User: Fold these one by one.
Assistant:
Number 1:
Amino acid sequence: MNDREFQDIESARERWEAENAEEFRKERKREFSLDCGIPLRRVYTPVDLAEKGFDYLKDVGLPGEYPYTRGISPTMYRGELWRISQYSGHPTPEDCNRLWKAQISAGGNVIYIAYDLPSQLGYDPDNPRAEGEVGRVGVSLTSQRDWEIAFDGIDIAKVAVFQVFNAPAVVGVANHICLAKKQGLDLKNLQGVCQSDILKEYEARGNYIFPPGPSMRLVADLLSYCGQHMPNYQATQACALHQAEMGANAIHEVALGLASAFEYIKVAVERGIDVDIIAPGFNFLVTCDPQGFFEEIAKLRAMRRIFARVLKERFKAKRPESMKCKIYAGHGGMSVHREQYLTNIARAGIAGVAAALAGAQQIDLRPYDEQFGIPTKEAIINSIRVQHIIARETGIADTVDPLAGSYFVEWLTSEMEKAITKELETIDGLGGVVKCIENGYIKRMIAQDAYKWQRGFEAGEMIRVGVNYFTSEVEEKPAQVYRADPRVEKQRIEAIKQLKKERANKKVKKALDEVKEVALMDPAGDNNIMPAVIQAVDCYATVGEICDVLREVWGEYDEPSFL
């Protein structure tokens, strides 16, 4: 557009505002803004984009082309729908086998493993520290024997396996590899994602085991091994969802997820690993909250743009695949509630629409009864059905990036990009992510965001229908709430004892000794720990045994107090 056209638009807007001044006084609030603090104007026009220096080809472009604002493939959902997953895990391998088969029958095409707390912290069910927690918040899946039971009759050539394991992630991926070999699958075709983002554990979630240095080494080893042997595997899921669940606003959420990914890449590249080998192995877990519908869409579009530019300009990536930000959009638990719990179905649906409009590669919606405990199978299946309705009944999947060109969406995408980039520069200026963990900057940032949100909620500015708005005096509860059988812990302890009786324990000891030997070596490209861990897992060594060896070498992380 030329200057005259912009002047005409601005004149028309000034006239419109003058003519409707009386009407504007009736607006619900004097000022409107996003949760992250960005003020919102009444209306957006091409002039607002011009103020941003908006350049269509440079900032948006076409789908599947740099900087991937409009999506990472030319066809997006016209070619293949997003992966429909459901984070789930019932207490035992046998329970999960039944649950996961039901999910597949309902149309799920991803098994997304939720481990119990002892497994995530590297403890077997028979460890005294596991008492009372075995199978309580997920599956107790501790050995290759357990994987064989859990995946009996499930073809992992057709179903991708994702897992949230983090500190012991190398053990989880090793189990996936060993199972694939048993099923005769070429590792080059193995599909999956492992959440091995240990930095976010120090920042928000707390399920860490080892100090940051050795933990970063494990992530780099995993990225390198999978990049070389498993090109369809995303070895590291860098997370922003957990920081958001702790209270981080949308800007800080995305900045922390990207900063962690850039730190992992930096560490790996400094060890001599080619960025184009490891960068395609990244996947990002971010929230998609129905409360900030357009904010969520804009932040994911901005995230793709920033990732592409940093990989190209800072890390000198050459392959297009290295610059594509693959997004797993998870509907966070902060936006589902016990009060009037069936309204959670609507929240999940809105979150799913936002994630689809933002171009996510995978979507995971919270089941309506999750606030009461582990979701029931009925609620999990309902959550999968909601995604199928969005994908197959709305037309959302028929056009690539249908919101592109919206004056508001493009302005907001650019505004989010600017704010996220500024926060990334702040983190870099303070010495990087690890330094910001050590000095408490990230913890304080998240706490401040959470405090601001809570004050807004208590003041009625952050509306949650049924919770602080249109409340009900009648308490509603599901007719059925899933609870782990208290006998599970005893069963799992007996299963571990039986395994240790039946396996070749001399081979296990030798394999564990080799894991220790590699762990004692300085981190380097040719000292990758994955082959030793795979060998130990193949001998039926347990996650607890492998992590105990690593604890012996590296010790455990003791978090200092910052608040």
Number 2:
Amino acid sequence: MIIKRILTVFTAFALYAFASPVSAQSQNFKIGKNLDIQMNVLREIAMLYVDSVDVDSLVTQNTINMLASLDPYTVLIPDEERESLELLTTGSYGGIGAIIRKNGENVLIAEVYEGSPAAKAGLIDGDQIIGIDGVKVAPLPIDECSAKMRGPSGTEVSFTIKKLRSGDTIELNIKREKIHIPDVVFYGMVEDSVGYIRITGFTMGGAQDVRKALLHLKENPALKRVVLDLRGNGGGILDEAVEIVSLFVPRNTLVVSSKGKVKQADINYYTASEPVDLEIPLVVMVNSASASSSEIVAGALQDLDRATILGTRTFGKGLVQSIRDVGYNNRIKITTAKYYTPSGRCVQAIDYSQRNEDGSVGHIPDSLMKPFKTLVKGRTVYDGGGIMPDVEVLPQEYSRPVVSLVYSELMHEYSIEYSRGHETIEKPSSFSLTDQEYDQFVEWAAKKEFDHRTASEVELDKLKVVAGKEETDLNVEKELENLVSLLGRSKSQMLVERKGEIKPLLEEEIVNRYYYQRGRAEIMLRNDIQFERAKEVEVL
């Protein structure tokens, strides 16, 4: 079947090639020749290869590898991933609104979305799923469990649930709905005069949520400043970014331009709506995970001298992708253009293969960064790799054992244990663990497995290995052992000594169990050194 498909594609392509202008014949001939070679190779494999071969999988993987050689964002979207595509573009999917995870053989509710069918049915984080539609889930992979929970809006799915707090086993029928993950996860007056809006994506209709949040903030006569938080926002639909910029600048203002190989990709995007506010001081917070549409918003407001950009340099993704149908319900997300801010700069990292571990822009020599001028005040800004903030403020750094504790998910696990014994807690702005409650966490976590070594202990362990291989004398080995004894800390000691780092993170996890992502976003601001600066920084 797959070879017939390739023959069909090749025949259609060949007909197209003969109808093309002479200038395109050479390129089309090369493509046709390589497709012919690939088809012949597949035929030989299918007929002669010593073991059985899944030719469908072979061709799909070949396509994936081919696209990966172009850039990180041009990818194949198979038919079976259409729900992921819908979630990417609309922020919506059909289901009950809950995230699940495996803990040994148990399938647990890990997070429930606010207002979702799961929340309405009384499911909470830590509830155990025993069966879905009469099928026991213990032996099933987690992806298969998730697939059973998803489905068209309006259909029902049945669950056998063991409740966290009571331990009772109950039967539930939940009607699936269209689950929408909002782009604005939290907004509000954080202090008497500071309004805050956290934007986590750019999906269809997201700009309207930002507009509503801004209008609600403006109802407060004490409002003196607005902070847009785009940290960790990986982007989304370009039109939504343009709509968000339109809230703060005059109508018919150029926000971004795209330029590609074909003329249809060359587009200028202007604001089409009347602004909500042209005067209020505006701060936009960004970091290395602010990408794509986030960079359009930050770059445009910076170029137009409408906002002060604060934080760290953004990701550096100035490429535009389009979704194209390639047959049999398969699609490709293909890079078709680069985008440029109003001053004319492209924020795409010059070499997207040279990245930091988190994927953000690596070091770019000054010689490769071209200066541009902002359009109102003539300030100097640069291209070549993300949006550089007007005010650089580094985030809080965490010690190695605390990072290890976070990645072990022990704080998430303990937050569920905490909620087992507490049906309610105070609101996010005032919730705090008592010293006694933190001591209980220390006692619990000290019995768990996680790497609690400091960075110096890790280096010392490496030195011991090297010394052992070099057969150093006994005195050196004794000195190393003394150092180990001097630097070493038990888990309990580490958890007590790092209380200042750990306690706020643990409180965030606990609040999330009761007040969802909205509550987490609110409580995070209490210990946010970048936000503290955003509240007081001099704005343009």
Number 3:
Amino acid sequence: MNHLTRALAAGMMTAALALTPALADTPPNMLVVAQNIDDIVTIDPASAYEFTSGEYVANTYDTLVRYDAADTTALTAALASGWEVDAGAKTVTFTLRDGVTFHSGNPLRGEDVVGSWERVVALDKAPAFILKQLGWTPDNIREMVTADGNTVTVRYEGDFAPSFVLNVLAARVASVVDMETVMANAADGDRGHAWLNRNSAGTGPFSLAAYRPAERLVMQANPDYYQGAPAMARVILQHTPEGASQRLQLEAGDVDMAKNLDPNQIAGLDGAEGVRVETYPQAAVHWISFNQKVDALTDPAVWEAARYLVDYDGMADNLLKGQMTVHQAFWPDGFPGAVTETPFSYDPEKARAILDEAGVDLPIEVTLDVISASPFVDMAQSLQSSFAEGGIKLDIVAGTGAQVITKYRARTHEAMLLYWGPDFMDPHSNAKAFAYNADNADDKYASTTTWRNAWMPPAAMNAKTMAALSEQDADKRLEMYRELQRETQAEAPFVIMFQAIKQVAMRDAVQGFVNGATSDYVFYRLVTKE
């Protein structure tokens, strides 16, 4: 192994960084992960809004507060060593941690915090709404967030519980970037956006070494990380969309970890030497949505019938065995306020009766966009079969993750099979996505499934969503979110079907990997290879 390490240092490591295929028997200080990474649209933390890009940001950047690798369920200090809340004045005052440096070697400053958040609001990319919820605009951001030496004072508008504000500031879009370096690489007024899609400028345990879309993303350890340098000198996310190839590479020792295996491939690893499978509950919910720009999909009877055209148990017990569980509400099970009842089951006769009573002309032909990776294509084929029993013909259109998501954001789809994970760990994150739409106009883009499906919820639902956000009584607030979940089950053009369970296969030597409930809590910092 020493000989191999020396060889890598002399040339093979360079080959790895040049994005050549992974080698068998990976070295002890390198983690090679086989993973489908083609969902990445951008890796700038001001715009990163996909699962894999969230994982990347979590490992290269830090926020002032966060849910950490040591405990993904507890909000802890990160770049801030402490904070004080004044709910009456609607302020949170943070004290920055001493001795933190960016990957460039520049010291962390209060101005970097202010500038990072100003940059997010000014660029106004997909996740910017998370910070803008606090009443921040390009015009007032430097009044709402101020720095004085090692102290950053955050002001917010709205009757929010302080816990909501802290959860917002723990989101990936609140990551702090090295403003001096980023602005030195700005071009044509883009505030360094193009440069940050090829480079990193964070304080995190890793920095970006190389990235080629839909091929490979390489992160290298930050030796000066304030919580200690990672054991892995490099983490390589190697794009391998096919689960069968991932399994073969894992069994051969070419990779240390495989993240996209289907149930049959997981079962096939039973008894494989030197390999184990770990299971991690996930916050992502999987659903079908209907674009309200398509006339044939605007009748609520179509939405209601569709809820009875999913073979929930058949898919969960067979096709998705071990990877998803039936869940029919927008807030995931395991989090306070979740609705866990499953009122819908496969009943094509009932679906046809609903459509007949509403006078819907059958058959209905609908294109269904789906990511061309496991298990989405298999799910789409199952839905195609079961929906046909109700008189709805689904024509499957498969594409890369980036293609499908880009089409979804442009509202040019008809029906969509996709997933949704919370932007931050507060039920308002999903309530705003599934039960609220401030403005349905084409030029009022919002990073919500309501806007992307051109659906305007009833006024009462919109009002309740915002009322729940400001409710100070914790128990009453959760009950309001339960009501919203049941209302969307009955009234929205969505069919929420499953909650994800992540199965990750890895070599026995790999220890310390952390996979929290969302991609923001996938951490490599504690990984070792024994």
Number 4:
Amino acid sequence: MSKLSLLLFLLVCGGLIAREQYEISGKVTDAETGEPLVGVNIILAGTFTGAATNTNGEFTLSNLPPGTHTLLVSMIGYKSKRIPVSLRDSVLVTQLNIALDRNVISTPQVVVTASRSAQDIMDLPLSVSTLGPRDLFSKNAITLNEVLTTQAGVSMVHNQLNIRGASGFTLGAGSRSLLLLDGIPIMGSAAGNITWDIVPASEIERVEIVKSGGSAMYGSGAMGGVVNIITRNAPARPETRFRSIVGFYSEPKYDQWKWRRRRGMFSMYEITHSRPLGKHGFWIRAQRSVTDGYTQLGWKRALSFTGKIKLNLNSRSNASVYANLLSDKGGALSQWKSPADPFEAPEISKRDQSSGTKLNLNTVWNTIFNRQIVLRVKGALYRVQWQNRGTNTDRSLEQKLLGETQLEVPLGNDHHLTAGYTLQQAYIDADIFGVHTVQTRALYGLIRVKRRHVSLSLGGRYEAFLVDGAPFDRQTVPQIAVNYRPFSWLSLRASYGGGFRSPTVAELYSRSQLNVFKVEPNPNLRAETSRSVEIGYSLRWSGKSALLSYVQWEGALFRNAFVDLIEPRPDHFGIIHFENVTRADISGWETGFTGGFLRGLLDVQLAYTYLNPVEINAAGTVLDTLSYRYRHYFTQTVNVHLKAFTLSLDSRHSSRIEKTELFDENPLTHRDRRVPVHVWNGSVAYRRGNLEIMLRGENLFQYYYVELERNLGKERNFSLSVMWNY
């Protein structure tokens, strides 16, 4: 009996020794200065085990199994590292000293949106551009749409997102570019439009813009492209940040245009607190914004609460919960009073206003199984309630639920499969739409194969669209794309893909009148479909030259062919219906350049897009120009860095919109005349320690233009922002 007990004891001890847990700890510093780096991400490859460095640059990973592992070390502004570590024998604690080199290329280099899994931006077969926190701060932005237009191929028409001219302007009733928050759509099912105020611009880690169309991966609404906003996680140490922006609009240039006694003011105040909770972390933000607007009905009041919690459950599982509640109220402007009073509203509309609340709740759960199979389960609730008062009294309630299951499966060293199923259910009850239910079911998949210098992607999606319980539409779209990377600094790409967009409830059933605009329903609409072709290149180089620090240069030729494109068309009585344009074709090219010069003293960003947007017949004959598109669009930004100061000058220039739908230009009186857009902005920023101050002026030369008929572009304004971390 004693021998048996001894044997069992030895077996248990042997098992415990075999399962001995190891630890990796160390310190991360700046390779140039030797200073410790705070907030560096340390991840054990193939797991969700990770840590972030503390105020001394130190980190610890505990309870690790023996074997050979790879540490992924990354931080925005520094070059990432992969460090192999062997945990064996009797060494239970491994000490590392890691030095990171600065990366003068400030934009993120790893993206997830194009293929729904992490991928080096130079290996992507589709056109993707990225924005980092520095890009958002440099424009003193309160909402994200103020920054997106710096990217090649991206423009705005009256705050409606246009990627390569796909959307034009659809009276806010349907966008062909999809907005995601942490990979989950945050666009309404009723109107299919974007509410920019719901995006927490100050809590964004990065923005990824897919410009080649994304229906194969993301379905209806993504035929013109995808914008994915990735929110940040809590930092490695407790932090409280206060940010304020206070500004004013200039008085009109002409005395007869003055319509109020004092200047219009605007302000934004927000406070964010974040902290780790053991191995978990969270942040919470409150924001209040107020503006008088530069037009009589341009006023707005908004209050927003946002929070995110990240739960690191174990080495192979984590979860996150994100929530945002927005309450806003503002004027509802449809057009100016007259050309002599462009800032005032018509007498009958001066009391028009809209108010509402929007709730967005997203949850994501990730886990890794054997053979590094990753399972992602997502759930979301999007609830919108609004009411119009004044000339047109309307109200609407919309609630959308979304569930998605996604698998990422490695099929050997050179193959990777991503597949998933999505179910979305929406309920809409509105005066102008009626009561309707909308359901979407979809299956998608993408296989990536990489052999030496070539990466090949093959994907597709099947989606069924039901309205009021009855089948309305179903679509199957393919995607094939290839990337050839002959050198580490150069990649060439080509892609072909299908796209589609089902009509929104607003396009199908709207019955409303706002001022002179009267909209009638058209329940016979068909889904839009498209075929897109693109070839492009990406060049990214960084070095230690005294003259040239880094270069990012990208370009693409593209053509998007649309069938049954949905556009708002007034009849001879002026009543607007959404109608299927028989065929349309948007072709063009774009190029973007970012360069750093003189050891970081100067950086320059340039972007140009050319579009040829036309309506054609079945034979390919051009019938007309598509409305609300810029044929030429150019933006530039120049930053000069002088120690703690940054001086910036940016501008956007576009050719005149050649065609509109509501009010055409009168060649005799020049009423409703359209002009090119030339807007210049400038700023001076000061950063020292935890304090950042910026003075910014927009539309410095007080240039007047219209994007939507009888609606002036933004008046000249100046703002002062202060951000303090402690």
